[in-house]
TrEMBL record:
<dbReference type="GO" id="GO:0016887">
    <property type="term" value="F:ATP hydrolysis activity"/>
</dbReference>
<dbReference type="GO" id="GO:0051082">
    <property type="term" value="F:unfolded protein binding"/>
</dbReference>
<dbReference type="Pfam" id="PF00183">
    <property type="entry name" value="HSP90"/>
</dbReference>
<dbReference type="Pfam" id="PF13589">
    <property type="entry name" value="HATPase_c_3"/>
</dbReference>
<dbReference type="InterPro" id="IPR036890">
    <property type="entry name" value="HATPase_C_sf"/>
</dbReference>
<keyword id="KW-0143">Chaperone</keyword>
<dbReference type="GO" id="GO:0140662">
    <property type="term" value="F:ATP-dependent protein folding chaperone"/>
</dbReference>
<comment type="similarity">
    <text>Belongs to the heat shock protein 90 family.</text>
</comment>
<keyword id="KW-0547">Nucleotide-binding</keyword>
<dbReference type="InterPro" id="IPR020575">
    <property type="entry name" value="Hsp90_N"/>
</dbReference>
<dbReference type="GO" id="GO:0005524">
    <property type="term" value="F:ATP binding"/>
</dbReference>
<protein>
    <recommendedName>
        <fullName>Histidine kinase/HSP90-like ATPase domain-containing protein</fullName>
    </recommendedName>
</protein>
<dbReference type="InterPro" id="IPR020568">
    <property type="entry name" value="Ribosomal_Su5_D2-typ_SF"/>
</dbReference>
<keyword id="KW-0067">ATP-binding</keyword>
<dbReference type="InterPro" id="IPR001404">
    <property type="entry name" value="Hsp90_fam"/>
</dbReference>
């Protein structure tokens, strides 16, 4: 949904550059509070006005993205990249599967006000209010806050969020940052016990403090880019070098050796898809084994499944 909002802003800003006046950055940022079980997802996309909040979130079946694509089709725009993931109204409500409460704070470049939509999982109603807290104002976009259920608070761990993003959203076209704990080492002085050192002349001992150092780890929090790998299967084969194919293979499948060979092709017909097939450098388990995870399906850059039976493998090899 955040990617949709950014896509929409990028498209509309071509004819209306003022939409980017609050900042040209197009990104997604995810911050977690594991102690309180809270996840915050912020994008700098198109945002929503109060009326759009009502239209998109007022009923579960509504979809701002679907309406946007319909408008594009009706206007018969040529060569428009309509590669949007999808139905905000429908997908948004899945948040209540793990949340007791959900808050959507949003600011549209077409509105001077920022509005907050709030609802609880056990309630049949929602509230919309204007955001007045200066510390919670955003220049543009949407901030989604999930207040997780007690049994689902494990999702609020930074490491788990990062792992989920790398698995499912690694190839989203906009940068996704997560708030991660980092550290660096440094040397600090430590005081040793005073040692007696004899001095010349009077012969009386003189106490001297010896200085020693130790290595400590300084902790801090900062944003970390999570989706660095690019979906090379969307490019034309002649534009991709052997080195890029090999690097993509090693990063995606956690391999350390280059593949023996690769094949990059497009299939068109009733179903259209683009594929890259790799031959590993070392012998693997039987690829027709139903338990293997050697095939990964992505729809519009989002990971869908790697759970396929042998029939699909035989179809591809045929």
């Amino acid at each position: 949904n955040a990617s949709d909002a950014l896509d929409k802003l990028r498209y509309l800003s071509v004819t209306d550059p003022d939409l980017l006046k609050d900042g040209p950055e197009l990104d997604i940022r995810i911050q977690t509070d594991k102690d309180n079980g809270i996840i915050t997802i912020t994008d700098s996309g198109i945002g929503m006005t109060r009326q759009e909040l009502v239209d998109s979130l007022g009923t579960i079946a509504s979809s701002g993205t679907a309406k946007f694509l319909k408008t594009l089709k009706e206007s018969q725009e040529a060569n428009v990249d309509s590669n949007l993931i999808g139905q905000f109204g429908v997908g948004f409500y899945s948040a209540f599967l793990v949340s007791d409460k959900v808050a959507v704070s949003t600011k549209s470049p077409k509105s001077e006000q920022q509005y907050v939509w709030e609802a609880e999982a056990e309630s049949n109603s929602y509230t919309i209010r204007e955001e007045t807290d200066p510390e919670k104002l955003i220049p543009r976009g949407t901030r989604l806050t999930l207040y997780l259920k007690r049994d689902d608070k494990g999702f609020a761990h930074p490491e788990r969020i990062q792992k989920l993003l790398k698995n499912y959203s690694q190839f989203v076209s906009f940068p996704i940052y997560t708030w991660q704990e980092k550290g660096f080492t440094k040397e600090v002085e430590v005081d040793e016990d005073p040692a007696e050192v004899k001095t010349e002349g009077d012969g009386e001992p003189k106490k001297e403090v010896k200085k020693k150092t130790k290595t400590v780890v300084e902790k801090y929090w900062d944003w970390e880019l999570t989706n660095e790998t690019q979906p090379i299967w969307l490019r034309t084969p002649k534009e991709v070098s052997t080195e890029e194919y090999n690097e993509f293979y090693k990063k995606t499948f956690n391999e350390y050796l280059d593949p023996l060979a690769s094949s990059h092709f497009t299939t068109e017909g009733e179903v259209e898809f683009r594929s890259i097939l790799y031959v590993p450098a070392t012998k693997k388990e039987d690829i027709t084994d139903r338990k293997t995870k050697n095939i990964r399906l992505y729809v519009k850059r989002v990971f869908i499944s790697d759970d396929f039976d042998g029939e699909l493998v035989c179809l591809i090899l045929a």
